[in-house]
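Design review, sub-item: ligand-bound model
Attendees: FS, YL, KQ
YL presented the inputs for the manganese (II) ion complex:
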Amino acid sequence: MESRIIKFYETTLRDGEQTPGVNYFPEEKLAIAQELAAMGFDTLDCGFPVSSPGEFEAVRMIAAQIENAEICAIARAHPADIACAWDAVKIANHSAIQPFISVSPLHRQVKLGKTREEVLEMARSAVALARTLTENVDFALEDSTRTEHDFILEVCEALLKEGVRFVTLCDTVGVALPWEFGQLVADVKREFPRIRISAHCHDDLGLAVANALEGLRNGAERVDTCINGLGERAGNAATEDVVMAIRTRSADMGLDVCIDTTKLVPTSRLVAKLSGMEPQWTKSVVGRNAFAHGGGIHQDGVLKDARTYEIMTPESVGLTAAHRRMHVGKLSGRAALVAQMRELGYELEKEQVNRSFEMAKLLLGKKRELEEMDLRYIAKCVTTKTVV
Ligand code: MN
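KQ shared the predicted structure:
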């Protein structure tokens, strides 16, 4: 089966910057944009130009310098926002704008104070206006997953008539279950087979990646993601997770990505440094434990053949085999200890291994993890006549 290549709307520089506590300087945004463009992401959502002069300048600087990715900016469904967003991105080789509006009953009533009809008209006229500036107009339906189904369809129909390119269905609050989000995409695609859908999913229930994948499986062409899963509250679907889930299970999903996966970890580290937000140690793909093994049974397996406990290689995400870590701890086994000792230059005989192991376990009753100096001390004890 021929795999369908999915597109990315990479929003590390926009939704990712809405992470409370994150604030990039313009040159930092540019540095991240360069990495993302080099990896092959189709569209970079670079910011919300009308929000501040600094943001406008940052987006314009990226638009002026990035050649091999589409540069997009967002705008509320207001004429002034749309004009400002277009001003910021129009010098790019490839540019796009994405106006948005909230469509759910709760947001219409509480946030906007508008009726269904008024919201529909604002969305329609935003796309109509934006289309006078560029053909590359996407439109995002904020809080789609808490919106009446028939209203979503009504808005989609109006936007298609105005020449919208992508319609972004948003699980803005991260409340959808995977089969619900998949069903939403499927229903819209069934009604409007020629519509192109982007899936924007938040991670409040830890389901952002699962929801995004269900969206893609049900016909969405594009997915919105952030490096390290940054974004509002619990963040967005993590770029590295979506990329590696599809790459690793491509044959089973009938989907693939056109992304240089060997830049995933370096880009994750850059974003971690500039955002000041380190991914948790057990974070999939890019966490510092993603290729670390703690249990003795696991370590023994990995030392014999890494495929026993790893479904992707460190090399495939930009690390080396040397980054594969055998943690020497309370639960680890002889194989990891021997491997670590070998790395430090000690070839131990069987009896020495046994004594080392005993010493290691004794020490681990006192401290959580053995460091290099502990291992060297143990090696020294077992390779000399010292009685312990
Ligand atoms: Mn969002």
